[in-house]
Amino acid sequence: MSARSWGRWPDARAAREVPLFDRSQALPPPIPAPGSSLLAHGLGRSYGDVALNEGGTLLLTRGLDRYIALDPATGVLRAEAGVSLDEILQLIVPQGWFLAVTPGTRFITLGGAVANDVHGKNHHRAGSFGCHVRAFELLRSSGERLLCSPTEHTDWYAATIGGLGLTGLITWVEIQLVRIASPFVSVHNQRFAGLEGYWALDAELGARHGHSVAWVDCLHGGRGIYTAGDFVDAPPDLPPRRPSTVRVPLTPPVSLVNGLSLRAFNAAYYHRPLHTQELQHYEPFFYPLDAMLDWNRIYGRRGFFQYQCVLPRAAMRDAAAELFRRIGRSGQGSFLAVFKTFGDRRSPGLLSFPRPGATLALDFPNRGAATLKLFTELDAVVSACGGALYPAKDARMSPELFLSGYPRLHEFTRYIDPAFSSSFWRRAGPPCSAARSAGATRADTVRADSSTTSASLANASPAGAPPADAPRGHAPSAAA
Ligand SMILES: Cc1cc2nc3c(=O)[nH]c(=O)nc-3n(C[C@H](O)[C@H](O)[C@H](O)COP(=O)(O)OP(=O)(O)OC[C@H]3O[C@@H](n4cnc5c(N)ncnc54)[C@H](O)[C@@H]3O)c2cc1C
What we know:
By secondary structure, the chain is an alpha+beta fold. The chain has a domain at 184-236 and 246-400: 2-Layer Sandwich (Alpha-Beta Plaits). It is built from 15 helices and 19 strands. Helix 8 runs antiparallel to helix 9. The chain is globular and about 60 Å long. Residues 6, 39-46, 50-51, 61, 81, 103-105, 108-109, 111-113, 115-116, 118-120, 164-165, 169-170, 289, 392, 422 line the site of flavin-adenine dinucleotide (FAD).
């Protein structure tokens, strides 16, 4: 069994992985074991356990990789759910089209983009990915195939966008693309000395530009660099682009990100010579991290967490300042810290994460109890201001925080496929939910019942070995 999540924690292996190749085929039945369940798994770019199904079956969707239709006049693309955004870009950019919304990596599948209703640097203008989904097919374990769109099976459409893979298997997706004048983006960069500077720049540049985001120095009061950009016509004499990627070749025993390296990197990055105005190819602008393959290995064998929250608009300034104070005091965090203001466009999903306000996303090496203690402190700020955490990035939030951040959670549970479940859902879903008890393994139960989960994390052993105090529910067996 090989499917892992991007944060490399938890190490919750499925008992069976079933590669899918044919969208017209029926779903395999779950393993005939009490509580066993199914879950789709795309490119595994979710950080925690939302794409994991410990002891159950993972349906590997990458083999659903066919384009179905592209109308070059209208920019309507229909493709199977395992096609990656990277593959789509290779097809559409030469024809003058781009994705209406893209996250910070292009190595995700269409199905994963829908199931987490991902967002990008243009949320303040374009909303989330789901806002541009024209239709998809949902295959239920009953064999029923539902054509879902803003006008057909609209309730299933709303439940499946941002539905964390729990409503069934998305077999294909149809999206609306947007026109671009060239693959190049005119980029404006500006330093700010603290959060007040961010808000001022955001009011000015965010309003003027289609894409905007800020890098923040999490150890230094939220100083950072604001970046905004728009696709432009490229000058004809531009030299050809030579894309280059490097790969982190191995996983070091311990994280290379620590207090010392973080302080040094952040200071150097903040003070680096800055091009206030520059022309960038879309790849380094939207996907700077994709230039380093397997970069998640730098956090060592214990893996890492991403903490991503959204703070509602009315409270975002005070709450963000408090989060940065607490993170700075702890001395933890990483150079991968992103701050962005979401806009008003409503996400179509019942469980969509984006909403009006500000979002902070920050990586943390897994330092066990110390990291979890900090998260508990950050949770208190998020919860007090009515904010939410992003399931796509989460490996440890409590059911209470999940419920308070997603007021339509109980409505959503009606749409869960009885054969589908995930490690995330069994850990953080409402206790009464069928999918939570349906796929529960003994290890899930231990985690769910431990309100802290910190015991197992504090003792977390290197990836590949179970935490000392968390018995495994199912020994992995051979792939089907
Ligand atoms: C470097 C990096 C940057 C990122 N930046 C952003 C960002 O800016 N914005 C953002 O929103 N996210 C961001 N993410 C998170 C990422 O976009 C999401 O986690 C995305 O959903 C991953 O897609 P995937 O194909 O890897 O799916 P997986 O991680 O494998 O699965 C994600 C979810 O989708 C479900 N799923 C997958 N395929 C199907 C299917 N065919 N049918 C039904 N359900 C399915 C799974 O069950 C699971 O619940 C980033 C991740 C990384 C590693």
